[in-house]
Design brief:
Helices cover 74% and strands 0% of the residues. It has one domain: Orthogonal Bundle (Trigger factor, domain 2), CATH 1.10.3120.10. Helix 2 crosses helix 5 and helix 4 crosses helix 5. The chain has 110 residues and is mainly alpha-helical.
Length: 110
């Protein structure tokens, strides 16, 4: 659909799979680290936050919160949505509490 021929895709199949595999590994590592930070800092997702996000998603998809909640719960999506909220809150926490300092670059040895 993007103007790439099937032969080009087949020729780069190994490269595409390698990139996807690396991206997946990075994603899992980041999720693990952020989840551990959330645990350590006591960051949690409140039921009201989950309900608000479901309502927002339902409105965007022209559905009802009840119907969307049912679909999410039947497919395990509610847990994934809660994890997304947790990660977002953890990132917000990190940004709010980050301390930045300007550092001079090290001189390279010749």
């Amino acid at each position: 659909m993007r103007g790439v021929s099937e032969d080009d895709l087949k020729g780069k199949k190994e490269e595409i799979f390698k990139f996807a595999n690396e991206s997946a590994k990075d994603h899992v590592k980041a999720q693990f680290v952020l989840t551990r930070i959330a645990e350590k800092e006591g960051i949690k997702v409140e039921p009201a936050e989950l309900e608000a996000r479901i309502a927002e998603l339902a409105e965007n998809s022209k559905s009802t919160p009840e119907k969307l909640r049912e679909e999410l719960e039947s497919g395990g999506g509610a847990d994934m949505l809660e994890e997304q909220i947790l990660v977002s809150k953890t990132l917000d926490f990190l940004l709010a509490n980050a301390k930045f300092a300007e550092v001079e670059p090290e001189k390279t040895k010749k």
